[in-house]
């Protein structure tokens, strides 16, 4: 057991308790104090089980990663804020300016778009990192409130702001959900550039429920996310593993988002999307939404429908190939409903829509997917009075084929 303890954290050591699956050495009593200590240490290093986790209990898992700051451009290397704080002001400013210039091709478009829009606006940034966006907008007339889960990241921004002669609204260290109580309730914009995607959906929803209390009705919620298409292209990995591909080996979690999934995370608050833009070869998704200040009525519980076998459509364009009955599931539902569908269109083009009870018309807009060979996701919306989800051929060049993996029926947002 002493050898086991010596190996914890040692370079090249035999035991990594964060990930190890280990058994007790021969002769070691299960109930011993040492074993209890080791098991407790193992749980702490591994982090909470997601089924038991809350935002506050998951924070230490996130901090272990995000004390390591990403560069503003793909060309830079990741650096720990603790190390950057040892640099002189001149060296720190030179690095910040260099990274800002290097990111112009990737990020310049949205800074040019939003700089005039944010002038005079109060902006709450979630996960401000080194403040590349926030300090830029502060220089262009915005009122900026940085916030971060890592205290040294905030100290770094304070150094940079002072060196540039700039004054943010404050410096918020997010040490728990209660930290948001310090903020006023009059922000015009929530700005979250690749931050809220890095924790599990339920925990992100928990944090968002606190953040949105501080956004004015009519304000904007703006996020940079990774899209579903990138997740599918990179292997459809579990979110606990995908982060290692997107953001380095130490990343505990990352999820894909589109506007519809983001609206679900922010529910029951009603959000109106005004931009849902994929860019940089589908590596990133830019989502801009207006907060209406309204709350939606209680939704129906989502229903997972059994997917049909692979479907090959008739040859003729617009011909129906399959119907999935939903009328009985929607009898007690008012308003509109949505279905989130993941599928692989292997040839041609496939249309999805909700169909009226008499089968003569759609109750909402049809969504069409062309063959790509990768998993795709589509959301259709229609009236709660719909009879079925219809799947049809939308190709004029012969039959089409689709393999449906999941169908989730839920209230529309």
Q: What are the key terms here?
A:
12 helices, 28% strand, alpha+beta, 413 residues, Jelly Rolls, disordered N terminus, Rossmann fold, 3 domains, elongated
- What level of helicity do the residues show? 25-40%
Straight-line N-to-C gap: 56 Å
Question: How many separate domains make up the residues?
Answer: 3
Broad structural category: alpha+beta
Strands ordered across the widest β-sheet = 4-3-7-8-10-9
Quick one: CATH superfamily of the largest domain? Vaccinia Virus protein VP39
Rg, please?
25 Å
Q: What form results from the Cα inertia axes?
A: elongated
Would you count the extended β strands for me?
19
CATH level 1 name of the largest domain: Alpha Beta
- The share of residues in extended strands comes to 25-35%
Overall pLDDT: 88
Topology diagram in text:
Layout: H1 2-7, H2 33-46, H3 55-66, E1 68-69, E2 79-80, H4 81-84, H5 89-102, H6 104-118, E3 122-125, H7 132-139, E4 143-145, E5 147-148, H8 151-164, E6 172-173, E7 187-193, H9 201-211, E8 215-225, H10 228-233, H11 239-247, H12 259-266, E9 269-279, E10 284-295, E11 303-305, E12 311-312, E13 320-325, E14 336-347, E15 349-355, E16 367-370, E17 376-383, E18 388-393, E19 401-411
Helix pairs in contact: 5-8
